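User: Quick sanity check before I run a bigger batch. Here is a single chain. Can you write out its predicted 3D structure?
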Amino acid sequence: MSEEKKSKQKQLNIELDESTAQGEYSNLAIINHSASEFVVDFVNIMPGAPKSKVKSRIILTPQHAKRLLKALGGNIHKFEQAHGEIKDYDKPNMPLNFGPTGQA
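Assistant: Done. Predicted structure follows.
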């Protein structure tokens, strides 16, 4: 089999519709997990608003969650190399009370 045919067989065609391409803004991620999956809820909290809704929920296998962690870490490293360190704040500037879950 030629190299060109092998290359074409390995390509994945991913489509992005216009609505999804617009994206959703999120300033809070709530992460939960079980033995078989990680659930990441993305929320947009507006100052002064007493209530917010989950804008998007992504469900990942543990293996994909770990790959996402590595990919995000690598991209943050590249970003900081180009633009300087991203400042991290110890305390969020809004009260969070979601029970026994993580936040990012």
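The first strand starts at residue 28 and ends at 33.

User: Great, the batch can go ahead then.
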